[in-house]
Structure formats: structure tokens, C-alpha cells
Amino acid sequence: MDLQPYVDAVRHELTIAARAGGDEAAELADRLTAPLESALRLALLDALAGAAAEITRELAPRSVDLRLRGRDPEFTVAPPPHEPAEQASAAEPLGADDGGTWRVTLRLPEGLRPPVEAAARRDGISLNTWLVRAAAAAAGPATGRRVTGWVR
């Protein structure tokens, strides 16, 4: 992903805003845009890393990583721990449109409650959603629909 168009857009908007302040302000804006480019790139990378973390919470047990190739970030999707990398696929998460739901009473040891609740909080999802994902991951690729291919 090329960040330069986004950096250039901010530089352009800063230049337009500075012109309203006269020639001195426009010159100052020109001098400030070069050092601001690094700060803008870092801010964009932070935003992309945050987006990757949010997407990872939704794709669990898969994960989305942000990697830098030179100056350009790129996203990669890692397979679940039990699935070999060469068979990686983007399995559609189970949702309300998958043909209904099934209610079951699950009895777990009381000692398991704190770490399971903490894991759900850490992932930013409900306990029920976390348990559904854990069950889907343990059941393997037979659950839900499967889409295979590469992610760019």
C-alpha cells in the first residue's frame, strides 16, 4: 500500500490553508511539510496497525499482520494455528445468516471462567462470540463456508 498519496493530500490541504494567511504563512507551510511527512507516515502506520488489530479480533483464530516492505505497509493474513500455511483460506465467520442457531447449556469448571472471560475481553468480543469462535476453530474447516485464495 502506497502511503504517498495520503501524505501528499495532507500536504496539499496544509498548503491551501496556509495561503489564506498570506505569503509568510505559505512559506512556513512549505518548510514544515517536509518534516511533517515522517510524522504523517507514522500516524498512518499506527492507524493501519489499529485496523489490523480490529480485523484480527473479527477473524479469530486467524490474524491480520501489518508488515513494512521498504516504506510501504502491506497486510498479511495468517492461518489459524491448526491449519498449515499452504492451505490458508479466508473462512467466512459464522453469523446469523448461516442457517440458524443452536442453544446448548455448557458447564465449565469455575476455575476456567476468569481466563475465558479475560480472553474474550482481550479480543473485544462477547463471551458467547468467543466461545462460538473457539468451538468453530476446534471443529476445523468442516464448519461454515470456505473461500480460498490470496489476500493482497
Broad structural category? mainly alpha
How many β-strand stretches? 2
Stretches with pLDDT under 50, minimum 5 residues? 83-97
- Overall domain count: 2
Mean pLDDT across every amino acid position: 76
Shape: elongated
Order of helices and strands: HHEEHH
With strands numbered from the N-terminus, the spatial order across the biggest sheet is 1-2
Rg on CA atoms, Å: 23 Å
Strand content is: 5-15%
Distance N to C terminus:
9 Å
- Major sheet characteristics: 2 strands, antiparallel
How much helicity do the residues have? 40-55%
How many helices?
Answer: 4
Lay out the secondary structure:
Layout: H1 4-19, H2 23-59, E1 63-69, E2 72-78, H3 113-123, H4 127-139
Antiparallel strand pairs: 1-2
Keywords for this entry:
single chain, two-stranded antiparallel sheet, 9% strand, 152 residues, mainly alpha
Overall description:
Strands 1-2 form a two-stranded antiparallel ribbon. Mean pLDDT is 76; it is low at 83-97. It contains 4 helices and 2 strands. The protein has helices at residues 4-19, 23-59, 113-123, 127-139, and strands at 63-69, 72-78. The protein is elongated, with a radius of gyration of 23 Å. Helix 1 (4-19) packs antiparallel against helix 2 and helix 3 (113-123) crosses helix 4 (127-139). It has 2 domains: 1-56, no CATH class; 79-152, no CATH class. By secondary structure, it is mainly alpha-helical. Strand 1 and strand 2 (72-78) form a beta hairpin.
